[in-house]
Amino acid sequence: MKEYTDLIQAAKEFPEAEAFIFDMDGLLFDTEQLFMEQLAIVMKEQGYTLTKEVYCKSLGLAGERLKELMLTTYGENYPFEECGAESRRRVSMVADTVGLRIKPQIVDLLCWLQEHHIRCAVASSTNSEHVERYLEKSGIRSYFSAVIGGEMVERSKPEPEIFLLACEKLGVAPDASVVLEDSENGIRGAHRAGTAVVCIPDLKEPDVSVQSYIDVLVRTGRS
Q1: Do the beta carbons of residue 195 and residue 215 sit within 8 Å?
Q2: Can you say whether residue 55 is alpha, beta or left, with left for phi > 0 and alpha for psi between -120 and 50 degrees?
Q3: Are the CB atoms for 163 and 98 separated by under 8 Å?
Q4: Which residue of 15, 65, 109, 119 has the smallest Cβ count within 10 Å?
Q5: Which among 168, 223, 222 is positioned nearest to 193, based on CA atoms?
Q6: Which residues contact 48 (CB under 8 A, 6 or more apart)?
């Protein structure tokens, strides 16, 4: 596993790549920190305590996998849908007013990929409606040829389905694609899909169990 501090230099490690596939939360935008904070507030209002450890376990999960984690942790009476929807509403309010922080070097990388005619997609566990709005509001939607949200696949990360769908939408083979991820679940899914993997850590350093799946690790720092 090679390490860099510069995203463009890391991208040059894959001269044959035809496509780059980006996660969104914690990768394009500094939204994992924001969502964790809002979820913690919402859960406290409902009488529950969110820890960073539990939240990090949820990174990259969606749908039934995420629900199973939260109900197992907090009990069958935990208001999963209510807490999730209210937290997302508050994050969306931030996005629509003050805007979301784009992670360091992301725009530079997107410009470089566009100049080199390399196709890009977003593959996020978040619903595509939110993904599209966040990309538009931040002025970077035009860089992406495809957007795949969590509701568009049956099995969320760490299964490979979302990355295979992104490759299909872009018209490229998985082994000609590079996935950029911050979460361990995303790294596992990309590895199972057969793509190259670039990890940009956000809230958590990649566990030793996934380090062998990472081709390049990039430390760009927090925004």
Answers
A1: no
A2: alpha
A3: no
A4: 15
A5: 168
A6: 74, 78, 83
Dihedral angle sign, alpha carbons of residues 57, 130, 19, 10: negative
Residue type, 136: E
Asked if 136 and 37 touch (Cβ cutoff 8 Å), the reply is: no
Locate tokens 């496509």: which residue?
19
Q: Quote the CA–CA distance of 88 and 126 in Å, as a whole number.
A: 10
| H-type alpha helices, 52-204 | 52-58, 63-74, 80-97, 106-115, 128-138, 161-170, 184-193
Distance CA 18, CA 103 (A): 23
Burial 184-206 (b: 16+ CB within 10 A, else e): bbbbbbbbbbebbbbbbebebeb
For 10, the enclosing helix (H) or strand (E) is helix 7-11
3-class SS at 17? Answer: coil
Select from 15, 130, 141, 120 the least CA-distant residue to 84.
Answer: 130
Torsion of CA 137, 138, 142, 145, to 10 degrees: -90
Per-residue model confidence as pLDDT tens digits over 28-61: 999 999 999 999 999 999 999 999 999 999 998 8
pLDDT, one tens digit per residue, over 61-110 is: 888 999 999 999 999 999 999 999 999 999 999 988 999 999 999 999 99
Q: Give the C-alpha separation, 8 to 15, whole Å.
A: 11
